[in-house]
Write a structure and sequence with these properties.
This protein is α/β, with parallel strands linked by helices. The chain has a nine-stranded mixed β-sheet, sandwiched between helices. Strands 15-16-14-17-18-19 form a six-stranded mixed β-sheet, sandwiched between helices. The longest helix is centred in the middle third of the chain and has 53 residues.
Length: about 850
Amino acid sequence: MLKDNKILKYIDDVQEVLEKNQYRVQRYRNNLEWFKNRKKQINNSIIRVAIMGITSSGKSTLVNAILGEQILPVAIKPSSSIIITCSKANDRQATIFFEDGTCNILKGKDLNEKNIGKYADESNNPNNKFKVVQIDITTPAFLLGDNIHIIDSPGLDACNLDMHERLTIEVLLPTIDICIFLTTVKANSDAVNVEKIKIVNSKEKQIILVQNMIDSIEAKIGKNGVVVEDKREILKKHKKRAENLLKSGTGTNNNFEVIQLSALNALNGIMRNDKALYNESNLDKFNKAIKSCIVKIAPKLEQQRIESISDKIHEIINQEEKIIGKNQAGNISNIIAVSDDEFREFVIEFEDSKENIKLKIDEIDKITRDTITKISESNSTEIDGYESIIEEINKKNRQIENSIIDIVKGREANKQELYRKLNLDMRQDYSLPSMESKNLEVKHKYETKTIYHEKSGLLNWIKRKAASPFDADWGYDVEYKDVKVIDKDSTIKMVENICNQNKAKYLSVLEQWRTNYYRAINLFKEELNKQKQEYEEKLKKKVETDEIQDVIKNLKNLLKSLKVKNNNDVEESIAVTISEDNNACVKENKVIISRAQYDMYILSNQIIEKNYLKIGEYIKENGNEILKVKSNQVFWTWDLEPCIEFISRVCGISFTEEDLTNIRKKGVLLKESIFIVYELCENKEHLYIELSNIKNQIFNMYILFNGIQIGNTEKQIINNNILQEFSHNNTIVVNMVIDSYKEFINADNISELLLEVEVLKNKFLKKMYKVKEGYILINSKNPMYNIALIECQEQKKLILSSYRTLKLKLFKSSLLRGKNDQAVVEKILKHYADKK
């Protein structure tokens, strides 16, 4: 696809000059070998396409669709340091490469998602205990061209992987040709995505933005089942949002387009041989977009090839002119691209950097000792008294991480420069060190305290004056209360454990990076030795001046025909590309139904509405019972439209366009006794002021979050200062509401989703220790999912008999007639039965 016949012809011309006779063949043997290898590279023309994006955006499903079958496991936690490459080949196999240089090849029935998951899933391979470096998968069913390699990098936005994310950018991105930035149509992390796109764009990489999971979009239904907004209109709005996102991220005013697809429909369409389903997926548009991108980057890659060949020809000419000139015994450094001194300095700088990183890591020991001393010497028993101590150690750990990243960044830039000078293909060099640090938190325990309240009245006043103040029978009411206090021993132990874990992790990263860097150093050393040997061999050979001068003359003539642009002249071809047929038109599909069918449709929607309103009322009453008082309701979200849908379902409240405009601008709206908090509003300062003024109130809270972006969600919720302050200032019972959950249902992993959310909920309750526990819910159109969830969470122990009774009761509902819905409900029940 990128085979440049002009450059290949040019290499042929160079080879013809160098092998004109036997003398030249012998003299230029190494040079001819170089041009032969370069022709082989051009003929192969490997294009590396990295798929990057938010965790659980459907990367594995998309790669499986490109592979033509389900080989990669979906809905997993990717192992942060393992790169997976996929390409086309005659053999269907996977090669697992290990750090010790060995490999394991999976073929036939052994090549399946379970066996790949053994190595690629963090759950099965925690902290990469199997020491896997890379997994290469090939199959003849690969949908893209022979010369395209898909590189599946670990999720760039998993919680607590900021360090790894930045290492990915510095180490992996320079080796990539095209970046597929994968998100979902419902993604609510636009600000985060813009920053990622800015960074990728700064590395001068071609970008294609893909919005996945269009199959999860449903028409917006209003009162009595009236369609307020159809699926096509909703997708158009999401597409517009993504276009604005790209414009912000790339800083260009070009009219960008966006690929919207369903990787799931594409995969199912291929596996079921369902052409209609496959066509609905839009995967062909994605494939065309990659081809379009390749065409766009072709001039840049061509220029790089021209510069590389030109540099090699100049190297030959310089060597020969030196040899036949007056100073043939001169310094070899004048001819070799990198002098011994420069290479020696490169190695010394790396060794110094390695030591500096080691010193930074050693600082953790001192931080640990200082923190333990502060905790030990503090007399406070209150939690708040230790928050600043713990926050300080977390801050210092982050500073250490930033210092390590800066050091790595500098050395990687130097390494890339040596690749260029030595005329080597840097794209072959990709390996990711993994780093995942852990934050500290204050450990607590409960102690029972006796609280004395003075009784009113003159007699009780006299009793208190006449008797011991600790005699409860004399003028006092006694209250026994469990109070949360600092657990010093547990906190100190936790500080020691986590700091030791972080130190060990950083040392592991240092070792991985060191190994990768030494590989590059050895490669450079080998190339330098080859160049020196080549020059020394020419010095030893018989010098036939006429032959050499003829070679120099012909090579110089060839150089004139090889146009080489200066770096400043290279045209920028960085853009966001989408391949769509400009002449294509969309015809609106209309389905004519009878009045009776329409009435039945309206009736079924009314039944759903009534059931949801009952659920909403039940949750509200449950919150009031937990809080022992009537409460208001607050809905906290980062994605406004799904939140509005959920409020409509559980509260029956409709919103005007003016309401929505106000929420988007100010972030807070009070309507019919419910609050809506939208954190991604335009005027965040107004939002923070409004929320800080809400104090000493009682709320039944719903936090709506994206289920398929659980890593990003954890950051939004757990590390959210404004949410923490709001929770501290008010009395709250919290319900966790999962939106965008279909990927897990489609992947048959609803149990894994619920486990992840339970962990998230427990972390939240631990951090916001005053908050009471409510329900885990799903923002689903079918209320039966939530009825099942509520029933299960209220069961103290879902034993087999209870499980059967509950299943029979739920399956009798007219709202649970479809097999798919029944299967989901049964998986919810099974999750809680297995868990108990």
